[in-house]
Write a structure and sequence with these properties.
InterPro entries: DUF7859. Keywords: Membrane, Transmembrane, Transmembrane helix. It holds the Pfam family DUF7859. The chain is mainly α and 47 residues long. It has one domain. The chain is 85% helix and 0% strand. It is built from two helices and no strands. It starts with a helix and ends with a helix.
Length: 47
C-alpha cells in the first residue's frame, strides 16, 4: 500500500512545487469566491 502511494508522488522537486502552487491558488480562489458570495448575500439582506 505504501509503495502505491509513493509511486504516485513524483521525485522531481519542480513538479512538486508546481503542484503545490496550483493547489494553493485553487484554495485561494475558493476562499475569495466564498467570501464574495457571502458578502453579496449579506449586502442583499441589508446588513
Amino acid at each position: 500500500m505504501l509503495d502505491l502511494i509513493t509511486g504516485l508522488i513524483p521525485d522531481d522537486p519542480v513538479i512538486i512545487a508546481v503542484v503545490l502552487i496550483l493547489l494553493s491558488l485553487i484554495f485561494f480562489f475558493y476562499l475569495l469566491l466564498r467570501r464574495t458570495v457571502l458578502e453579496f448575500r449579506d449586502g442583499m439582506r441589508g446588513r
